[in-house]
Amino acid sequence: MTDAPDAKLIEEGRKLFAGEWKFVWASPSIETLPPMASMEVAFAGRSNVGKSSLINALTGRNALARTSHTPGRTQELIFFEGPDNAGLRLVDMPGYGYASAPKAKVASWTQLIHQFLQGRATLARVYVLIDARHGIKDVDQDVLKTLDKSAVSYQVVLTKADQVKHAELEKHIEETTVTLAKHPAAFPDVLVTSSRDGSGMAELRAATVRLLGERS
Ligand code: GTP
Ligand code: MG
């Protein structure tokens, strides 16, 4: 687990995400990305892991990003922008590893995900979401490898922590940390979150606002 961020970062993170966040762009393909402008932070992960819900929880908006019980909800790269050009965009990504979607769709989402993660100069950090009930799976490893290869900094965020008993959560944090030690571009600490009860949101906001400071 990460060391507790200091109070100043927590407050800066709270302020940044308390502003009004809005949808700015949707890209169904790598050819239709928005022009590069401010720093981007992307949310990647298996289908249904809770990417869109996490963006809603971070920004305090119930329905900024569209969520669903069924996998395959987000089918494009969706860009959100903060208040008064805060210098940050959030990117909601389609999920990978959705076994029952048509093969052609899965292939095109997977290609879009990997292409975006490989070649975007404004991409400052990728949060790779992992379900706290399941830990890192093979299909996640493919994405971690792409990120290692393209040297994009990333951090693992465990989701749905509200669904897991304390001992199991500790076990998955431990296993995930051991796995990440083998990945050169991975941030070594794991963030533990729940969009449902809000846990980990202050830390995730602080980790994100900190990136802005590092870049400016
Ligand atoms: P795709 O866009 O299909 O890849 O999914 P996604 O990763 O964006 O997941 P989404 O946010 O749509 O959430 C999927 C389901 O998980 C929804 O039913 C959410 O309500 C549920 N969910 C998301 N986050 C949490 C959480 O922290 N706790 C619990 N219990 N459920 C959650
Ligand atoms: Mg989604």
Question: How would you characterize the overall build of this protein?
Answer:
The protein is of the alpha/beta class. The protein contains 6 helices and 7 strands; from the N terminus they run H-E-E-H-E-E-H-E-H-E-H-E-H. The chain has helices at 7-18, 51-59, 103-118, 138-150, 166-180, 201-215; strands spanning 22-27, 39-45, 77-81, 88-92, 123-131, 154-159, 191-192. It has a 7-stranded mixed sheet with strand order 1-3-4-2-5-6-7, sandwiched between helices. Helix 1 (7-18) crosses helix 6 (201-215). The radius of gyration is 16 Å and the shape is globular. The relative contact order is 0.19. Bound molecules: guanosine-5'-triphosphate (GTP) and magnesium ion (MG). Magnesium ion (MG) binds next to helix 2.
Labels describing this entry:
216 residues; alpha/beta; seven-stranded mixed β-sheet; 7 strands; binds guanosine-5'-triphosphate; binds magnesium ion
SSE diagram, text form:
Layout: H1 7-18, E1 22-27, E2 39-45, H2 51-59, E3 77-81, E4 88-92, H3 103-118, E5 123-131, H4 138-150, E6 154-159, H5 166-180, E7 191-192, H6 201-215
Parallel strand pairs: 2-4, 2-5, 5-6, 6-7
Antiparallel strand pairs: 1-3, 3-4
Helix pairs in contact: 1-6
Bound molecules: guanosine-5'-triphosphate and magnesium ion.
Distance between the termini: 27 Å
- Beta content comes to 15-25%
Bound molecules: guanosine-5'-triphosphate, magnesium ion
Element string (H = helix, E = strand): HEEHEEHEHEHEH
Strand order of the largest sheet: 1-3-4-2-5-6-7
User: What's the overall geometry?
Assistant: globular
Query: What composes the largest sheet?
Result: 7 strands, mixed
Low-pLDDT stretches are: none
- Structural class given helices, strands, pairing? alpha/beta
What percent of the residues sit in helical stretches (DSSP H or I)? 25-40%
Mean pLDDT across all amino acids: 92
